[in-house]
Amino acid sequence: QQQVKQSPQSLIVQKGGISIINCAYENTAFDYFPWYQQFPGKGPALLIAIRPDVSEKKEGRFTISFNKSAKQFSLHIMDSQPGDSATYFCAATFSGGYQKVTFGTGTKLQVIP
Amino acid sequence: GAVVSQHPSRVICKSGTSVKIECRSLDFQATTMFWYRQFPKKSLMLMATSNEGSKATYEQGVEKDKFLINHASLTLSTLTVTSAHPEDSSFYICSASGLAGRDQETQYFGPGTRLLVL
After folding, report:
1. From A71's CA, which of A105, B16, B76, B96 has a CA 20 to 30 Å away?
2. Tell me: the pLDDT tens digits for B58-95?
3. Hey, is the C-beta of A40 within 8 angstroms of any chain B C-beta?
4. Best of A4, A10, A100, A110 to disrupt the B interface by mutation (most B CBs within 10 Å)?
5. Which of A19, A2, A16, A24 is nearest to A87 (CA)?
């Protein structure tokens, strides 16, 4: 019940295209859903996060869509750039920041020129 | 704000020796710190959660006598890999949680420490 399923495992997108990564969770008690971006040899960096009381959150080229009834959420990267090439992890946790985070399996994104 | 550092960034040691990894929150007080392990092309696996001044809580399957965690202050947590063996070679990442940064209810990750045990 603590799992977060993430797809696809890898994704190749042309520069300027839209990258879409999907995640599904099981535990309805989760109430905070962050996305992390990780470059090789580096720690994950918080990209954007959403709470289940909103259906969409946008920050620059990054948008999270959240479907509470389906227990699914997705990351959209608009106008994808080669610099966006990284591994993206969705995650689920509980409010407060002091709770352990359940990570998805990761999506390796490659944006080609 | 919300910067977390780790030291060292890379360490190579001989089998049987102990290695200490430091995790520091540079611009905020971290009441809770987490230690993760990441294998190549895999997701992060939580090893333990530590709160300042108390014993760490280890995840199932993680040997507490092998991976010693100390959270002595609100800005420093250490992970000591005791009697390291080649199978302990991995990427170790810490995260810190506290009232800081643009999102006060999330964890901020360090840059990671690459451990290679020969």
Report:
1. B96
2. 999 999 999 999 988 889 999 999 999 999 999 999 99
3. no
4. A100
5. A19
